[in-house]
Amino acid sequence: MHMEINKESDSRGALIVLEGLDRCGKTTQCSRLLSHLEELGHSVESWRFPDRNTGVGQMISSYLANKSHLDDHAIHLLFSANRWEKRSLMESKLRSKTTLIVDRYSFSGVAFSSAKGLDLEWCKAPEKGLLAPDLVLYLDISPEKAAERGGYGDERYEQLEFQKKVAQSYRTLCDSTWKIIDATRPVEDVEKQLKQIVMECVLTCQKGKPLSQ
Ligand code: DGP
Ligand code: NA
Ligand code: NA
């Protein structure tokens, strides 16, 4: 259950999250959405999690590159901490009317860790209190198709068998508020569909949809 933390009528930026398997096309779409909103004169930034630039982010990056090994619970909490360390900046950006297009958020945290077999509720707990997205766009592609796109790198999770488990976790997490986008369609078609949905959300937040956590 989300809790509202501002009054109706405060105009603000929108918190828009893109989720999906590795190689689903999120990063490309985030940058296209960013340019589109900029061209329309909106104040907008594109963010991503993990944010590898912080101290915690560097530990995550080293883990993903298989340069360090951490207990599954410990890395889960680091990913979550990486979102927590950006929370207050996130809130001030939104309140100062900047829209944030975010490449991965809490759902990645829960989907990837529960795919390893960690308890779902345990995985969700540290995410409680982070800002709730105004829109979750799920770029839907089968793990097999994503793998065919080529360019799984050599990071820890970029393996077909594991991605199949992640896809299953996302199916468990997904609810009726998510917009499921067919990510196997041509990039321009996906882009067009995303722009429409995003604009609607940006306008609703401009009009003063309450911020929740
Ligand atoms: P990306 O920079 O989007 O390619 O993400 C790096 C990898 O880390 C990718 O395989 C997805 C995974 N990931 C992203 N967020 C989380 C998280 O919060 N928890 C876990 N366990 N994995 C995550
Ligand atoms: Na990746
Ligand atoms: Na993350």
From TrEMBL:
<dbReference type="GO" id="GO:0005524">
    <property type="term" value="F:ATP binding"/>
</dbReference>
<keyword id="KW-0418">Kinase</keyword>
<comment type="similarity">
    <text>Belongs to the thymidylate kinase family.</text>
</comment>
<keyword id="KW-0545">Nucleotide biosynthesis</keyword>
<keyword id="KW-0808">Transferase</keyword>
<keyword id="KW-0547">Nucleotide-binding</keyword>
<dbReference type="GO" id="GO:0006235">
    <property type="term" value="P:dTTP biosynthetic process"/>
</dbReference>
<dbReference type="GO" id="GO:0005739">
    <property type="term" value="C:mitochondrion"/>
</dbReference>
<comment type="pathway">
    <text>Pyrimidine metabolism; dTTP biosynthesis.</text>
</comment>
<dbReference type="GO" id="GO:0005829">
    <property type="term" value="C:cytosol"/>
</dbReference>
<dbReference type="GO" id="GO:0004550">
    <property type="term" value="F:nucleoside diphosphate kinase activity"/>
</dbReference>
<dbReference type="GO" id="GO:0004798">
    <property type="term" value="F:dTMP kinase activity"/>
</dbReference>
<dbReference type="GO" id="GO:0006227">
    <property type="term" value="P:dUDP biosynthetic process"/>
</dbReference>
<keyword id="KW-0067">ATP-binding</keyword>
<protein>
    <recommendedName>
        <fullName>Thymidylate kinase</fullName>
        <ecNumber>2.7.4.9</ecNumber>
    </recommendedName>
</protein>
<feature type="domain" description="Thymidylate kinase-like">
    <location>
        <begin position="18"/>
        <end position="193"/>
    </location>
</feature>
<dbReference type="GO" id="GO:0006233">
    <property type="term" value="P:dTDP biosynthetic process"/>
</dbReference>
<dbReference type="GO" id="GO:0005634">
    <property type="term" value="C:nucleus"/>
</dbReference>
